[in-house]
Structure formats: C-alpha cells, structure tokens
Amino acid sequence: MQSTISIHIGKLKLKNPVMVASGTFGYAEEFKDFLDLKKLGAIVTKTITLKPRQGNPAPRTCETPAGMLNSIGLENPGLDKFITEKLPILKKIGVPIIVSIASEKDPREFVTLAKRLEKIKEISAIELNISCPNIKNSQLPTHSPQLISQDPSATFDLVKQVRKATGKVIITKLSPNVTDITAIALAAEKGGSDAIALINTISAMSIDINTKKPKIAMVTAGLSGPAIRPIAVRMVWEVYQKIKIPIIGMGGIMDTLSALEFFIAGATAISVGTANFINPKVSVEIIEGIKKYLTKNKIKNIKELVDSLKA
Ligand SMILES: Cc1cc2nc3c(=O)[nH]c(=O)nc-3n(C[C@H](O)[C@H](O)[C@H](O)COP(=O)(O)O)c2cc1C
Prior knowledge:
The protein has helices at residues 79-93, 108-118, 152-165, 181-191, 229-242, 256-265, 275-278, 282-296; strands at residues 7-9, 12-14, 18-20, 42-44, 61-64, 67-70, 97-101, 123-129, 169-173, 195-198, 202-205, 207-208, 213-214, 220-224, 247-249, 269-272. The chain is α/β, with parallel strands linked by helices and 311 residues long. It binds flavin mononucleotide.
C-alpha cells in the first residue's frame, strides 16, 4: 500500500509534509552536497530583512543539555542580495521556496518586503518571523512586549497589513515566550494568515561558572533542540483546538518518532531545525520514516494521523 503524504498549506501543495526550519538550513546551497534537496517538502530560508544585518557579537551559540542556545541576531545579506545571489540557486532546486522575513525596527518593513517578494513567481510562500528572541525592539519601554508575537493585537494588525500586500501564502511563525499561545494563533488566523508555524526558540540563558560570564555575548538567547520538544508538542496540541488553518510544527524534531508526535498532536506539516546541524540528511530520513510508519499502520493518508491523539 502506498500512503498519500502530500498536504496543502493554503493554496500551496507540498509533495510531503517535511520542511527545513528557518535559520538552520541557510539558503539551501550550504546543504546541497549532503542530501538530495529535491526530496524536501519545502525549504524555508534563513530570515531576511530589508537591509543587510551583521547579527550579534560572538559567542552566539553554545551547547546545552539536549539542545543549544543561539543568538545569531538575524545575520543576513538583506533583500537585494537575497534576490540577486541566493534566490537564483533556490529557484533551480525545484521545491517550494518559503521566504522568511522580519522587520528590524518598524513593522511596516514586513509590508515592503512582502510587496517586493510578491513579484517573484518562484516564491511559494512568505513566513512572517514575528518571533525572533534575538532582536529586541529597543524603541519600546522594557515593560512592553518586545516581540510582535507577544501581543495579539499587534499580531492581528501586522498579518492584516501583509495580507493586503500579497496574494502569496502567508505563514505566521509564533514565539513560545508567551502566556497563551492560542490567543496569538487566533489573532494571526483572524488577520488572514494561511498557516501557523510554531515554535520559535525559547528564551534561555547559560553561565560559565569559572569566568562567571554568560556563555552567549548577548546574555540571553534562544533554546532549541530536543529539550524544547515536549513544550512544542503541547503548544501544537493547544493551538490545534482553537484554529482551523494548518499548523507547521517544530521544536526538537530529531527523527521520525519525534516528527510523528507533532502530527498526532495536530500538525499538518513539520519543520526540522537543530537536527540539521547533527545530521544534514535527517529530513529525508524522516520522509522515508513517515512513509514506513503509515504503511505499517495501514494509514492511507497522512491526514488521518493529524489530531489522532487518544486523550
Ligand atoms: C542557529 C539557529 C538559527 C535560527 N534562525 C532562525 C531564523 O532566522 N528565523 C526563524 O524564524 N527561526 C530561526 N531559528 C529557529 C528555528 O527555525 C526553529 O523554530 C527552532 O530552532 C525550533 O526548532 P528546532 O528545535 O528543531 O531547532 C533558528 C534556530 C537556530 C538553532
């Protein structure tokens, strides 16, 4: 029996539900020697901003128990260089390209980016990174939410503005650093998002006890990897109860077994992040693993697995 593993994210059809997560796969070229990129369901690019960014000072990463901290600070070449240098290579791969975008200071930059990308037919979707914990909006007083995705009304307004600017599929990526992630997911859905991606990294910190210095120059950073998986699965499950649009689940997916948890919790698709640094082929292995699991369990369509939790 050949099970169906194609899925839809809005009007976008993916041949399988496995993507690579923003910031953990560069602009794909970096990984071309390690795996057959054509096998991926979709590629999500490193987040780009309007202007180039150098990112945060080093050290920007460190290992933690069952995970890692990063504070890259959205280092990227900026929109123009992305279009001239990165996109031509991405276009040739032949899988849907999802471009992750973020603003630096003014949320209106999202609209400018979306309008520019709208004209490029090879771009299948735009992911709104309103959840990066490593760039703070210094204009806001410290007691205000620092991320757009920490405020339902800011999330609604932003998604609505981008929705007006583009006919492309919009995916909104949420932060777990909130009290109630369902309120933010609902706001994004109401604003016109086609899908929700969750979770981005969890705000965290690690200290070198000999030097008494933080292990990351910016002191706090984003935690990713298996350590965050149970939190991510819980959040996917909670959000699934509240929204109708598809969820792209991520957070500590290391193998087929961990990917399957996300589908059962309610995700339509999944994204592989930190695991790419350990085994660059892991996404392709997960696609094969999902197929085997469906066949073994006589599941005809991956859709049957979504929200199959027996609670
Ligand atoms: C080194 C690194 C860089 C990242 N850069 C981005 C980024 O540019 N944009 C974004 O939306 N998420 C970024 N993320 C978050 C991942 O896309 C993902 O949401 C998160 O790491 C959880 O998944 P994981 O545990 O499988 O890594 C980054 C994560 C890591 C580890």
